[in-house]
C-alpha cells in the first residue's frame, strides 16, 4: 500500500514540473518544510483533476488515494505548526528574561524557558541552552552538557551551533581538543554565510590549523567575512594587510587589488596612495576588472598619480569590456562630460542604458537626465520619469529629488504637488543638499503642504550654511522682498554674495541689480556690469537681457549697440518676457538695429502675453498711436487699464524692493496709466512724464532705453523739458553716440524756453 502511495505521490509531485500555471520555482522547493506543505495543502480538487491531460496521468482512484493520504496529514500539519510557534515563543521569552528585554532580568527563568523550547526540538533554544551551560547562566556550569546541546542544535542545522561546536573542539570545551574537527564545524557554519566562522577559517588556512596551508582559501574566506560585515576591528585589518601582503607578492590578483585598497584607506597600515596605485596597477595589468576600474578613478581624480583623463578613460574601457558594471557607468560619464575624449551623448546613452538595465543607480539617474533634456536621443520625459522612478525605488536620494521635480512641474507625468513634496522630503531625510531648497520652497509657497515660512527658512538656512547656492539665493530673495519676514536689504546682499561665490547665476543677477541701484550696498555700476556679464555667460536669461540693456545704455562703461542687441536676441531665443519688451524698444526706435515698428509690435505683444507690465503699456501705446499696427484706441486704453491693475501685475513683488508699502505701487501705476492716456491727446508733457516714469521706475520697471524714447518724442513735439533730457543723453553718450554739438543745441533750445537746469549746464558748455 505505502509503495503504491509513494508512486502516486511521485506522479503528483512530478506533474508540477509540467504544469506551467502552478509550477513551483527553485526557491519554493528549497523553502522551509512548513512552507512546502502549505503549497501542497492548498491544491484544490479541480487543480488536481487538470493533471489528467498530462503525459504522466493520475487516475481518479489515485486522486482519491492522495486525498485520503493528505486528509489526516492536514490535521497533524496544523497541530505541528501551532507547536512550532509555541516553541519559538518559549525561546524568545527565554531571551527576554536573559537580557531583561521587556521583562525583569532573571537568568534562572531564561534557562527554564530555553530548556522547555529545546526539549521540544527548537534548534535556536538548544544552542542558547548550550551557551547557558557553557557560561553558567541560570544553571551550574557544565561544559560537557554545553557541548551536547550545541551538537543537538548543529544536527538540526543551526549555523551558530556549528560555529560554537568549532569553538568547543578548538578550545577543548566539553570535549577533547581536535583542530581537524573544529575546522570541519567552522567550515560547515561558514558555508551557511556565518561571518564569524568565515573569519576564523582565514586563520586555519593561513596557519595550517587542522588543514593544509592554502592562501587562496584564506583570502577567499576573509573576503566572504568582510562582505558579511565581519571587518570592523583593527585586529582584522592588520590580519588582512599581512595576509594580502604575502599573497600579493605571490602574484595573487585579488590580493594585489585588496592590498591597494588597504593602502588607499590606511587600514592595517598607514595611508599610502602611491602604493595603492602600484598594487592596483599590478592587479589591473593581470586583467582584474575591479582593479582596472579603480585605477581609472585614480587617474581621473589624480590620486597617488598625476591626473590623466585619457588614461582614466582607457582603464574604464578595459573594465567595461569585461562587463564590470561600475565601469560601464563611469565610461558613459566620460562620454557624457568629455573626460579623456570628445563629448558623445549618444555613446554615453548607450553605456548608461547597459548599466541602468543591470540596476546601476547612478546610470539610471544619468540616463533619465539625458532623456529629460533630449541629449543623445530625442527628448522623452516619460522615459526620464521611468528611470528616475527605478532609482528612487532603490532609495537613491538624488533620484527622489529629480522625481519630485517631475511631479512638481508635471514633466513626463501628471502634475502632483503632494507627491512632489513627498519625494523632496524623502530626499531631504537622506540629507541630499539640493532637495532642502526644493522642500523649503514648498513650505514657503504652500506646494503640496500648508505654508510654513518658519520651516522654509529653517531648511534654506541649513542648506545655505552647507554651501547650497540655491538656498542662499532664496534667502536673499526673502530678505529682499520682505515677505513674511522683516525686509533686510543688507542680509539680502549678504546671501546673494554667498550664492554668487557658489556660481549661482540667479544670485549673480540679483546682486548685480543691488549694485546697479545701490540696494543694501553702495552703488557700483561697474561691479553690476561684471556680475550681469558673469550671470549671462552662465546662461541666465534675465542677466542676458540686463547685459544687453547695459551695452545699449553704456552707463559706467563703453557703449556697444551691437553687443547689446546680441545679448537681447540671445535672451529672446530663450523666451524671456522682459527681453521681448527691450528688444521691441530697439526695433521701435532703431537702436543698434534697423528700425522695424512691425517687429516691435510683435515683440511687445509676446511680452504682454507673458504678463510683463511694461510691455502692456508699450503695446497699448502702439495701438493708440498706430505703431506697427492699425490705430485702435479702445484696445490701447484697455491695455493701459489692465497694466495698472496691481492684482494682475507680476512686477508688484519685484517693486516691493523699492517701496515701503503696496499703496505706493498702486499710486505710481495709476500715475503711469494717467500719463499714457494723456499722451493720446498729443500732449508733449505727457510724453515727458512717461519718460520720467521709466527713468525713475515709478510703478514700472526702470528702463532708460524706453525713457530715452519718450523724451525724444516729447522733444520732437516741442517739449522744453524733453529737449533738456535729450541733451543729457547726447552729452553723456547714453544710448546714442556722444555728440556735444547736438547736446549744446538741445540745451540752448531748452534754456531759451525757460528751463533753468539747461541754462546752468549751457554756461559750462560755452
UniProtKB/TrEMBL annotation:
Q: Which organism is it from?
A: Rhizophagus clarus
Alphabetized InterPro entries for the sequence: Sel1-like, Sel1_AlgK, TPR-like_helical_dom_sf
Domain of life (superkingdom): Eukaryota
Q: What taxonomic classification does the UniProt entry list for its organism?
A: Eukaryota, Fungi, Fungi incertae sedis, Mucoromycota, Glomeromycotina
For this protein, the record's Gene3D superfamilies field holds: Tetratricopeptide repeat domain
Q: Which family does it belong to?
A: Belongs to the sel-1 family.
> What Pfam families does the entry give?
Sel1
**Name this polypeptide is given:** Sel1-like repeat protein
